Structure prediction request, 92 residues.
Amino acid sequence: MGNAISLKQLSYAMKLGKLGEQFVLKSEKAFERIRFLDYAVADNSEYYARRKVRDEEARKAFQRELETDDVRGIFMRDILREEMKQDDIRLR
Prediction:
């Protein structure tokens, strides 16, 4: 398939190491209410090591996922070719 991953594989990858976890402020009210309160210095010897382990584990898990063929999966080229819309049931 040459560097192509399916929607299912991409979804799996975004969950590795919480890569897909995001926070969004959607309204003016939300922006008005957010405040910077404080910060804490993080010890890089501790947190870098944790991040590195998390990253390595996520990369290994993703590589294993790529080794499984998703021949029935939906790929970006399918979405574009078929002009799928966001409410298309196949994207759920």
